[in-house]
Write a structure and sequence with these properties.
It is found in: Cell inner membrane. Its main location: membrane. Keywords: Cell inner membrane, Cell membrane, Membrane, Protein transport, Transmembrane, Transmembrane helix, Transport. With about 400 residues, the chain is α+β, with helices and mostly antiparallel strands. The protein has 3 domains: about 5-240, Nucleotidyltransferase, domain 5; about 245-315; about 320-400, 2-Layer Sandwich (Gyrase A, domain 2). The protein has helices spanning about 45, 75-85, 120-130, 180-185, 215-220, 245-250, 255-265, 280-290, 305-315, 320-335, 360-375; strands spanning about 5-10, 15-25, 30-35, 50-55, 60-65, 95-105, 110-115, 135-140, 150-160, 160-165, 170-175, 190-195, 205-210, 340-345, 350-360, 380-385, 390-400. The two termini are about 55 Å apart. Residues about 240-245 have low confidence and may be disordered.
Length: about 400
């Protein structure tokens, strides 16, 4: 069960910041609100380890559908700001344009876009980053209301405002003071409300969705995964983060595996269970085994037993043999940068460990050789060859026979 964090932000100082922690099966875990943007620091801890999404008040985002002279393409995307200049009351450079889905209207190609104040959006992301809240998804809040039949308005009350959605690409927030005029102008045929609507103007027949009355953010969270649109694009695209487990594997699969296996054998702890790991990790574990024991056939269902058997066989060698050499080699690996083992070969009779290595330059090999000799090992360095920007070579470590 994965937990997620939803934060709703309004540019008005009068509006609170609402938040919701919920699970993938829509179970509400916690919720609350804060009075101002600076209070986001209170959500830093809640954001750690949870997928975070930001809902911007629809009053901060203008949704438009633009007719195009031809089918949507890259050139039209570059020309879009100039096409909008006459429709904007401000300089087009002050507006951030987010691209939605292309479509057609009366057999003419169209594109859905969202307009937002560029500076306001930049400041918001800066505040979020300052508080270590990294949101991959930013969506106008009212766009997450259920999409109903044509000319049927979906509404929900939040903090004295009404969030409204009409069709696939029309969302807004209305205030009680002027909401009646706006709803009259929409001329909708029916209003479906997901919270009590006694205060909502009588401009069309109302349909109460009482079975779905709940926290407004919980209602919006249900549609989050069904909405492809995301304001985090272009200059505001979310930075791709590399998972920590991938960084660990990528830094040196062979060396890390040898260190892990040695630690397991010496300390007597259980072999790390592979069940429950991602498919990528399982594949990497198989590749590691094949590289460490190239002459052994891999049986995926019995991989753990195979590893345990190989570790027992290694641990039974004279004077520690392989484990002693591997332990000293791994300790050196952690001290030297730009140094990556590719293959390992162990000669039991000669108690010799042969490592094929890729390094940044020739000096790295000399540095490694010096460190290993200081640890009392006999070190032989094979021929070194350039391979593009790297140097490939072999190091032989020999212990007592």
């Amino acid at each position: 069960m994965t937990e997620k964090l939803l934060i709703r932000i309004d540019q008005s100082a009068k509006q609170a910041i609402h938040w919701l922690v919920y699970s993938t099966d829509q179970q509400i875990i916690a919720s609350g609100e804060y009075k101002q943007l600076s209070d986001l620091a209170e959500l830093t801890e809640k954001a750690q380890g949870r997928e975070t999404s930001i809902l911007l008040s629809a009053s901060m985002v203008q949704l438009k559908t633009i007719e195009l002279p031809t089918k949507w393409n890259r050139k039209l995307e570059q020309a879009l700001p100039f096409m909008l200049e006459e429709q904007l009351a401000c300089d087009v450079d002050e507006v951030f344009i987010a691209i939605g889905e292309p479509g057609t209207k009366d057999d003419k190609p169209t594109i859905n876009i969202a307009l937002c104040d560029r500076v306001l959006l930049a400041e918001l992301f800066a505040v979020l980053e300052e508080h270590q809240i990294f949101a991959k998804h930013v969506v106008p809040d009212a766009l997450l209301l259920p999409e109903l039949a044509e000319n049927e308005l979906a509404v929900v009350e939040l903090d004295g405002q009404w969030l409204c959605r009409l069709g696939a690409w029309h969302a807004c927030v209305i205030e009680p003071s002027w909401g009646a005029d706006y709803l009259h102008a929409l001329a909708v045929e029916r209003i479906s409300h997901y919270s009590p609507a006694d205060a909502l103007p009588e401009v069309a027949p109302k349909v109460a969705k009482e079975a779905e009355y709940e926290l407004p953010l919980a209602l919006l969270a249900k549609n989050l995964t069904n909405t492809a649109f995301n304001l985090r694009q272009g200059i505001f695209a979310a930075k791709k983060s590399t998972p920590q487990w991938w960084k660990d594997w990528q830094s040196g699969l062979i060396a890390a595996s040898v260190a892990l296996f040695g630690f397991v054998a010496v300390q007597g702890i259980q072999v790390v269970k592979l069940k429950g790991q991602a498919e990528e990790v399982r594949a990497e574990a198989i590749a590691t085994y094949q590289q460490a024991f190239p002459n052994k056939r891999v049986r995926e269902a019995l991989l753990r037993r195979q590893i345990e058997g190989e570790l027992k066989a290694i641990s039974a060698t004279k004077q520690g043999g392989f484990l002693d050499l591997a332990d000293k080699f791994v300790s050196v690996y952690s001290q030297v940068k730009d140094f990556q083992p590719e293959t390992l070969r162990y000669d039991h009779k000669r108690n010799e460990l042969r490592i094929r290595v890729k390094a940044k330059d020739f000096q790295v090999f000399g540095q490694v050789k010096t460190i290993l000799e200081q640890k009392g090992l006999t070190v032989q360095q094979g021929s070194l060859n350039n391979d593009g920007d790297a140097v490939i070579g072999e190091i032989r470590l020999r212990g007592d026979v």
